[in-house]
Design goal:
The complex is a heterodimer of chains A (112) and B (114). With 112 residues, chain A is mostly beta strands. Chain A is 0% helix and 54% strand. In chain A, strands 2, 4, 5, 9, 10 and 11 form a 6-stranded mixed beta sheet that branches. In chain A, strands 1-3-8-7-6 form a 5-stranded antiparallel beta sheet, with no helix packed on it. Chain B has 114 residues and is mostly beta strands. Helix content of chain B is 0%, strand content 54%. Chain B starts with a strand and ends with a strand. Classes of the chains: A mainly beta (112), B mainly beta (114). At the A-B interface, β4, β5 and β10 of A face β5, β9 and β10 of B.
């Protein structure tokens, strides 16, 4: 079993819809949770960062962490075609060293 | 956000040769950089952690004699793939630690070994 599981998609939604992404993980030691966006043939770009359980909102993006269920989510409101990309969740046990464990990524396609 | 560059962006080499990939943090100093490998439609796999002025820490299963890492300054880390073989063909991405929780990634280097 992988440490971090993420549905590969593709997830296709119409423009303006809410995109719902999630990851599950097995290691309860993970404390820090991130979401990255990766366009084709580019490096990942940090979108959201969350520590422990709770919600965090930044513009159209909302990240949720439920440590009791080992489940994290990212919601994108009012999706745009420019949101079409692969979204990767990542997590780490501690800040020291910053070693990240990534999910496999979910490919999202927002259709105009 | 902070900028990390990689050079070259794409390289084709013959089997048995060595290839060097550079990772630079352009507007900040990074004591720690990371090297990842990504296969098509797959996630990033951490290869090694590069610390300025000290030896890199390799992940389990990564051959340190094959993937040589040098972090000679606070803005530059290099990955050298020695005696490259076709199975080394992949997308190599570096990241630089900017703060306690932020890493900024380079645009990646696509290596093709023929």
């Amino acid at each position: 079993q992988k440490e971090v599981e993420q549905d590969p998609g593709p997830l296709s939604v119409p423009e303006g819809a809410i995109v719902s992404l999630n990851c599950t993980y097995s290691n309860s030691a993970f404390q820090y949770f991130m979401w990255y966006r990766q366009y084709s043939r580019k490096g990942p770009e940090l979108l959201m960062y969350t520590y422990s359980s709770g919600n965090k909102e930044d513009g159209r993006f909302t990240a949720q962490v439920d440590k009791s269920s080992k489940y994290i989510s990212l919601f994108i409101r009012d999706s745009q075609p420019s949101d079409s990309a692969t979204y990767l969740c990542a997590m780490s046990r501690s800040l020291a060293g910053n070693k990240l464990t990534f999910g496999g990524g979910t490919r999202v396609l927002v259709k105009p | 956000g902070a900028v990390v560059s990689q050079h070259p962006s794409r390289v084709i080499c013959k089997s048995g040769t060595s290839v060097k990939i550079e990772c630079r943090s352009l507007d900040f100093q990074a004591t720690t950089m990371f090297w990842y490998r990504q296969f098509p439609k797959k996630s990033l796999m951490l290869m090694a952690t590069s610390n300025e002025g000290s030896k890199a820490t390799y992940e389990q299963g990564v051959e340190k004699d094959k993937f040589l890492i040098n972090h000679a300054s606070l803005t530059l880390s290099t990955l050298t793939v020695t005696s490259a073989h076709p199975e080394d063909s992949s997308f190599y991405i570096c990241s630089a630690r900017y703060s306690n929780y932020e890493q900024y990634f380079g645009p990646g280097t696509r290596l093709t070994v023929t």
